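Hey there, shall we discuss this one?
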Amino acid sequence: MDWSRYWRSADRPLEAMHAHFERHAYHRHSHETYSFGVTEDGYQAFRCRGGAHTSATGMVIAFNPDDPHDGHAADDLGFTYRIVHIGPELVSGVLADIAGGTAALPLFDSPVVTDPVLARNLRGLHAALLGGASALRRDELLTATVGAMSARAATRGVRATSATGPLTGTVERARRRLQESYLDDVGADALAEAAGCSRFALYRGFRRAYGMAPSDYQRQLRLRAARRMLARGGAIGDVAAATGFADQSHLTRWFVRCYGMTPGNYRSAATG
């Protein structure tokens, strides 16, 4: 039986989820945050950065911001995991505090890490967030976890962009066009014109740079906007209409596919 519990900070880009999934399969999506998870039981399979990965019991998952990935149980028994989403600005602040000055954001090359210390830190932080620990204790565990993740699993400073090669400028222009007007019904011709290349070149370059088609990226932007509105207590039907979804059911279907919970459950966790 699938279940999930969600927690969201009222004043910082910090969220946590505890879930068990047997049947649910995540659609390919990404987060604006760093996402650090630990598999508590079972086997979680997913694709990320062009490769297939499996996180078994005790393994740590490390996603960079905007890393596209999916996810599903590797067998009929399902998997249980804890995951924490931390905004880049919060990670930057923690690392700068540790360093006593400016610090580069970390980049995690491997989405799966075997490290009992990191797994223990993540479990402790996650339990504190969902368990109502004091603000001081949460901050202490957050600092310890982010510091350990950066020191033990990061490979280098943050990349300037995920796009490489001659199409870097064109796909970035297309991405900015989508970000600036994600509610617009932008056709492929208009997007290619904004990018300054052919439709085919844009589609191929965009997928290579950002891990998904432009239409999927646009829907991702709409889902992120919906999350922000729901976190402020917006009515689901109103949020669906304001973020470009056909209706409440349409938003709900995609919200569940990408985040593993309904908009109502997310709103309750965010506003409770």
Notes: The mean pLDDT is 91. The radius of gyration is 19 Å.
